[in-house]
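Morning run. Coffee first, then this:
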Amino acid sequence: MQTLDVDVAIIGAGTAGMTAYRSARAHTDRVVVIEDGPYGTTCARVGCMPSKLLIAAAEAAHGIAGAGRFGIGAGPVHVDGRAVMQRVRSERDRFVGFVVDAVEAWPAAHKLRGRARFVDARALQVGEHTRVNARRIVIATGSRPALPEAWRRAAGARLIVNDDVFAWDDLPASVAVVGTGVIGLELAQALHRLGVRVRLYGRSGRVGPLTDPALQSLTRATFARELPLTLASRHFEVQAREGGVHLKSVDGEGGTHEESFEWLLAATGRRANVDGLGLESTGLPLREDGVPVHDRRTGLAGTDANPGTIFIAGDATDERPLLHEAADEGRIAGDNAGRWPDIRVRPRRAPLAVVFSDPQIMIAGASHAELVAAGTRFATGAVSFEDQGRSRVMGRNQGALHVYAEQGSGRFLGAEMLGPAAEHIGHLLAWSVQRGDTVQAMLDSPFYHPVIEEGLRTALRHLQRELRMGPVPVERCLDCGPGA
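And here it is:
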């Protein structure tokens, strides 16, 4: 048994752990990162990058299939599943390689392999071989898919998660996807467009993360036109069958749907990897889900009365499982762990979330539900993309954008969107939220013609009218262009 004495120990070498390491090293070289799994972040290995590779292939197939509307004859679409998955895995491995190379370049003394468990608030047992005494500890252990145990028993090896999809050598004939959140929606649509028979199941009537009731209703209707959906399911019964699974779903009104598939893909959420860490030995107050109570502005776990010297960052917080949030949290936690006891409060960036479905989905700033829950007095502006000029030109005229601003001040608060180029418009709007822009300041910015962003201008004009601020906009004015 060896003993290491360090200033900062970081548990986990994912996105949050890597940024925590770099930030802590700005203050001390007595740092160790402990990892018990393969190097390579969730995003690069089984998350955002391989899923976007699969989506890119699906978009190519969908573009060929829809070319006829432009008067282009492209012939029947042929999807080579093995070639699709070969490119997905090859490019995924390239992205993972960059991450692994970065970790391998760290000094050997800064890396320790094995599973860590708290002995007390300042000591860790790593495997059976090392005790780490650390003045500060950063928990950056990430998360894992949450799987219903009953499904695991019933389906056995036919129950998979998104991680398993990217290990396929070929595309299957059929997949049942359970879970209508970001992961379920993206994978279900991509597989469907690549010729896989798919049905998307959900326990609620919701599809995707939008909280604005009008937009949520539009989202359900939009995806129901393309994807076979079974929503508001109150009961799932899973049975193993020869070469697959049989799924029986019963909705709230007693309606039954039964269908057999090769695979059952569970996209039913994720769980923070905090169980098994021995957190009960730290004295930290824990939430019901086992995650330590913490301050997301500093990364510090504990309470004001008992702050301790343990920090937490990334998906282990079970709050915003997004790469840029994990990187920010790792940077904050690592910096404060390194500079302890000179703890600094770091303001967080404006929220931004994107779903790479088609049409895309985004939430920038405060969501509709958050504004309502906070009791904020706000107005809503809206635009439909069905008749928006550039969107119609490209044949991507689906969806709508809702923008929100504070009554009285006209300060822009947030937006929700289903529509084309949402990933780009979301960035513009998140930046406006972070700067504290007013709706008038946003309208005073340049808008080119013809672009999808003209739809944003229409929504902002509607919002300004609802706020009863500024001049009444001229309907379909000549200088607005057809997309205004």
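The two ends are 70 Å apart (CA to CA). Good start to the day.
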